[in-house]
């Protein structure tokens, strides 16, 4: 089934920045890169729960604002010496709108 | 009886298809309609016609003789207006023509942005000879032209008109030119090249209206900018010309839907070119259209053939601009970049690898290897063996060795190492063998790497090769892993090379990564703010969270709010406003800080604009308790109340805070003013401290009381408050202009020496100049960030709330 929901205009998200979507399972950070790629990951650093949406975005990575772990937005995996991973969500852009695959919500509420 | 083949549109795609059919001896009665009053010409070559490098006659691909000799019934200047599928007849204004097979090849139509004034005379698009001639007619020397759209077509239009002497401005909606084909670094180089030709480029510009009474006079942007214009060319994109197909009820998506044989949903009707959609893909370049032409010719001749889209590569046809882009160059999962920059030659190359394969390439300045890379992309070749030297192109990659040091070893003695000073490898080896065993000595003797410094790594490799184990690389570490330059070098080069944007620094100084990292970006942003206060625009996304959100982030993701309390003095009204805010936003803790003011801790991000708007209303501004900037000016009560006070330390502290607040500095800056040597404001452990005495004011600097504890050192004795103000502003500016990012004043002074600092501020001419530059920067930066941010509370809240949706 098609679980993509319209959450925002692409331009609501600053380039090299992020905005947050609230869900019952916690916040999801929606990132936009310098070249307008969009990624969605949990807004919660596996180290000490830092809000990744507030990190500096460089290339397709983000550096956690609290203690500087770096995550690859595309894989959700940490880069460099520290080990860790954040959950990713499917997201896509159509006609200037950002669509998030919200199937995880349905799965949860069906359970 | 011969089959009747009717073709709608005499363009690039159908022209090629007819060639294939006739070459194969296909026997058709062909009727060819074209809306343009002429036959097929090479549309791609309109740009050289516009710039004056070619004439229209030179770009005609099929002339009258060709059509006659193949018996084509030409209906040029005759638009088809209707297709009657049931009776297999197409109609133009002049009547109907029957077909057995019909080919729709109507290309695409330029997109017109729906702004007021779009229909004024003097507004054109860029698609055909009429558009081209209109631009040629308007491009008298001195005439003003505005091109809307900084993509392939818009830039070719701009360059063509500029070549004819027009004064051209390009307005582009996105952050950099040709964003679909180029990344920001290549976009920067392109913009620089175009600007060097006198073309003005306005990125992030949204057109609001085209102004004029009887014809165009100007273009107005959303940001209020107005560009006068005698001609406006809209080149913002194309959409497939599908009107006939729609009216005939063929299957149409974004384009006319066709299968692998280019057949539409009606078996007797085919389509090709930019008007079609195949496998959800549209086409805007000729290479795949030529493949379609071959396949459709075969289909019509009754042969088996299937269309498969190929990768396309783009080149910009502007003489003297070398640009190439192919494949997929977006970053993505498991993708890796290899970046090479040669600032001296204005060269940028970026390869994108996925696993063992090359999937994309962007090149600027030197595109000689473009076709080789394009080939690797198309062949999906395994490039893992070539990886280390791939970026150097076929010349290197085909050699056996893949060690970068070996690559330098293989260079002949006459190979140029330092582009700025034209120093070849042999000269460097000679100097080293003659006893120049350190980088400094090599620089002194040969000038290699002494200018832009980007060849430092290469020079060091030559040294490593020549000296073997006797060589150790320089001690001062580079800024971060994105560059080989030290902070000091970067600061120096920003100024000497006049670099005014982050992409400019990254390109000109040979950054090795695409977008920098969390360590270099804030530093570069600071250096640019400090060096070009009125020209550079602060990049909020290159700031650490605290400075971006103008509040200190806490361990749980909430923030602290610290309003300024000038010199540590407050009032009942301010305290009441703080108390009200604390209650209204349920602030978990209200705390007096070590900096003589009040901290509201634990505020939620989405409440920041509202709490600040309340505090602003009570006259309070941000205390920058989060900033690499002025923090606090602590004071004691001084002569106004204290029995020992010699001067008005409280009043002077307030004046200093009002002078310095809002300024960005390499690291935080704290001041204190004590009214006498008892020093109750702890002025002698601050970055800058003033101790008042009977005869005036003793200014001392470079103290610290954090990770290091250090007493200040005497800088200057002033006799009036005004003198204190000037000396301190000048000293802060000296620090702003020279220190490396994150170095507090005491660390910087330890490096440059207090004597040097004193000499700078003691010299009256120098002091005035420093003071003036500080004030110029303050004219831009001394503004309360919350006055602006509090007006857009929506930007601070989640963009969407799915908590309710889940409950449904
Ligand atoms: C709020 C305050 C403590 C308090 O409750 O009093 C404070 C709180 C923080 N200090 Fe401080 N410092 C505070 C006065 C001081 C002082 C005393 C002073 O200013 O008189 C010092 C020593 C003097 C000095 O700076 O030399 C001080 C030396 C530091 C340092 C060490 C700096 C150094 O160069 O050695 C850091 C770390 C840093 O900046 O990298 C730091 C960093 C911090 C940070 C910003 C840590 C961080 O990055 O998150 C703390 C924020 C806590 C939070 O969650 O909001 N804080 N900090 C004080 C705010 C003063 C103000 O009104 O702005
Ligand atoms: C200035 C310019 C520069 C370009 N440079 C490049 C380049 O460097 N590289 C590249 O790959 N591509 C380039 N292109 C794109 C390339 O020209 C197009 O992809 C190609 O021309 C599309 O071919 P086509 O046959 O589908 O359409 P066209 O060549 O546009 O032909 C369609 C024809 O159909 C006619 N027509 C439309 N409707 C009707 C109707 N109802 N009745 C009768 N006739 C009709 C039109 O008048 C037109 O003549 C450039 C385009 C332009 C305008
Ligand atoms: S000393 Fe400063 S940085 Fe350390 S815990 Fe206290 S407030 Fe935080
Ligand atoms: S919480 Fe992210 S690095 Fe510590």
Automatic annotation (TrEMBL), chain A:
Domain of life according to the entry: Bacteria
Gene Ontology MF terms in the entry: 2 iron, 2 sulfur cluster binding; metal ion binding; nitrite reductase [NAD(P)H] activity
Stored InterPro entries: Rieske-like_NirD (IPR012748), Rieske_2Fe-2S (IPR017941), Rieske_2Fe-2S_sf (IPR036922)
Ranges in coiled-coil conformation: none
Segments forming domain Rieske: 5-100
BP terms from Gene Ontology: nitrate assimilation
Keywords of the record: 2Fe-2S, Iron, Iron-sulfur, Metal-binding, Nitrate assimilation, Oxidoreductase
Mitochondrion as UniProt keyword: no
Protein name: Nitrite reductase small subunit NirD
Originating organism: Aliigemmobacter aestuarii
Gene this protein is translated from: nirD
UniProtKB/TrEMBL annotation, chain B:
UniProt entry tagged with the keyword Hydrolase: no
Gene3D superfamilies per the UniProt record, alphabetical: 3.30.390.30, BFD-like [2Fe-2S]-binding domain, FAD/NAD(P)-binding domain, Sulfite Reductase Hemoprotein, domain 1, Sulfite Reductase Hemoprotein,Domain 2
Chain ranges of the Nitrite/sulphite reductase 4Fe-4S domain: 627-767
Cofactor(s) demanded: siroheme; FAD; [2Fe-2S] cluster; [4Fe-4S] cluster
Residues reported in the UniProt entry to bind [4Fe-4S] cluster: 636, 642, 676, 680
Ranges where the Nitrite/Sulfite reductase ferredoxin-like domain occurs: 554-618
Record-linked PANTHER family: NITRITE REDUCTASE (NADH) LARGE SUBUNIT (PTHR43809:SF1)
Similarity comment text for this entry: Belongs to the nitrite and sulfite reductase 4Fe-4S domain family.
Protein name stated in the entry: NAD(P)/FAD-dependent oxidoreductase
């Amino acid at each position: 089934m098609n679980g993509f929901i319209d959450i925002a205009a692409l331009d609501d998200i600053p380039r090299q920045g992020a905005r947050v979507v609230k869900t019952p399972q916690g916040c999801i950070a929606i990132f936009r890169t310098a070249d307008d790629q969009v990624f969605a990951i949990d807004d919660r650093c596996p180290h000490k729960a830092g809000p990744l949406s507030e990190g500096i975005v460089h290339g397709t990575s983000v550096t956690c604002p609290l203690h500087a772990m770096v995550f690859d937005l595309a894989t959700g995996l940490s880069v460099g010496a520290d080990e860790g991973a954040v959950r990713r969500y499917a997201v896509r852009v159509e006609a200037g709108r950002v669509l998030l695959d919200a199937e995880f919500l349905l799965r949860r509420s069906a359970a | 009886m011969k089959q009747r083949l009717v073709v709608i549109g005499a363009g690039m795609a159908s022209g090629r298809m007819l060639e294939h059919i006739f070459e194969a001896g296909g026997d058709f009665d062909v009727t060819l309609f074209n809306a343009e009053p002429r036959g097929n010409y090479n549309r791609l070559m309109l740009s050289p016609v516009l710039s004056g490098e070619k004439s229209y006659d030179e770009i005609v691909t099929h002339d009258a003789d060709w059509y006659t000799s193949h018996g084509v019934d030409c209906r040029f200047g005759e638009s088809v207006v209707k297709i009657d599928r049931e009776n297999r007849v197409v109609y133009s204004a002049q009547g109907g023509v029957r077909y057995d097979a019909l080919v729709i090849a109507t290309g695409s139509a330029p997109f017109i942005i729906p702004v007021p004034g779009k229909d004024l005379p003097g507004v054109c698009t860029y698609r055909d000879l009429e558009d081209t001639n209109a631009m040629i007619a308007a491009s008298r020397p001195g005439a003003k032209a505005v091109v809307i759209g900084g993509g392939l077509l818009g830039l070719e239009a701009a360059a063509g008109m500029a070549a004819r002497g027009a004064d051209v401005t390009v307005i582009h909606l996105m952050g950099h030119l040709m964003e679909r084909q180029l990344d920001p670094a290549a976009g920067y180089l392109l913009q620089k090249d175009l600007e060097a030709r006198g073309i003005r480029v306005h990125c992030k510009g949204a057109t609001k209206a085209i102004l004029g009474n009887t014809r165009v006079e100007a273009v107005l942007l959303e940001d209020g900018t107005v560009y006068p214009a005698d001609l406006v060319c809209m080149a913002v994109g194309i959409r497939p010309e599908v009107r006939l197909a729609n009216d005939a009820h063929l299957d149409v998506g974004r384009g006319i839907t066709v299968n692998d044989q280019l057949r539409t949903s009606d078996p007797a009707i085919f389509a090709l070119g930019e008007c079609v959609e195949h496998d959800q893909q549209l086409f805007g370049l000729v290479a795949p259209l030529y493949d379609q032409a071959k396949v459709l010719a075969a289909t019509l001749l009754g042969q088996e053939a299937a269309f498969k889209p190929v990768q396309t590569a783009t080149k910009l046809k502007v003489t003297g601009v070398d640009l190439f882009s192919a494949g997929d160059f977006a970053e993505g999962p498991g993708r890796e970049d290899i970046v090479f920059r040669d600032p001296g030659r204005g060269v940028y190359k970026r390869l994108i690898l996925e696993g063992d394969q090359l999937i994309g390439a962007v090149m600027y300045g030197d595109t000689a290897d473009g076709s080789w890379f394009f080939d690797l992309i198309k062949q999906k070749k395994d490039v893992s063996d070539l990886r280390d030297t791939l970026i150097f192109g076929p010349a290197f990659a085909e050699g056996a060795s893949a060690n970068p040091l070996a690559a330098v070893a293989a260079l002949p003695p006459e190979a140029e190492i330092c582009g700025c000073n034209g120093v070849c490898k042999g000269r460097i080896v000679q100097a080293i063998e003659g006893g120049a065993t350190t980088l400094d000595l090599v620089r002194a003797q040969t000038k290699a790497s002494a200018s832009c410094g980007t060849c430092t790594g290469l020079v060091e490799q030559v040294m490593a090769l020549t000296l073997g184990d006797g060589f150790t690389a320089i001690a001062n570490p580079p800024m971060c892993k994105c560059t080989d330059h030290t902070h000091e070098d970067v600061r120096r080069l920003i100024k000497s090379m006049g670099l005014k944007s982050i992409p400019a620094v990254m390109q000109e100084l040979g950054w090795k990564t695409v977008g920098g990292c969390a360590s270099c970006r804030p530093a570069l942003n600071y250096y640019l703010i400090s060096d070009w206060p009125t020209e550079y625009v602060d990049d909020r996304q290159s700031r650490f969270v605290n400075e971006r959100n103008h509040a200190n982030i806490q361990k749980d993701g909430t923030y602290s709010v610290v309003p300024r309390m000038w010199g540590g003095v407050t009032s009942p009204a301010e305290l009441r406003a703080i108390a009200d805010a604390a209650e209204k936003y349920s602030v978990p803790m209200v705390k007096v800080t070590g900096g003589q003011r009040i901290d509201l801790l634990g505020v939620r991000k989405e409440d920041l604009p509202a709490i600040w708007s309340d505090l602003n209303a009570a006259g309070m501004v941000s205390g920058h308790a989060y900033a690499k900037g002025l923090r606090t000016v602590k004071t004691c009560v001084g002569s106004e109340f204290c029995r020992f006070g010699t001067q008005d330390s409280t009043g002077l502290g307030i004046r200093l805070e009002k002078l310095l607040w809002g300024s960005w500095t390499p690291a935080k800056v704290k001041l204190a003013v004590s009214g006498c040597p008892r020093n109750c404001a702890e002025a002698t452990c601050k970055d800058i401290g003033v101790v008042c005495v009977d005869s005036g004011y003793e200014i001392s600097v470079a103290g610290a009381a954090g990770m290091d504890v250090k007493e200040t050192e005497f800088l200057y004795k002033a006799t009036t408050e005004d003198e204190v103000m000037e000396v301190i502003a000048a000293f802060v500016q000296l620090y702003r202009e020279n220190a490396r990012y994150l170095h507090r004043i005491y660390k910087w002074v330890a490096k440059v020496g207090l004597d040097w600092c004193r000499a700078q501020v003691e010299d009256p001419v120098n002091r005035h100049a420093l003071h003036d530059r500080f004030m110029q920067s303050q004219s831009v930066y001394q503004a309360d960030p919350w006055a602006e941010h509090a007006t857009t509370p929506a930007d601070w809240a989640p963009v969407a709330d799915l908590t309710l949706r889940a409950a449904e």
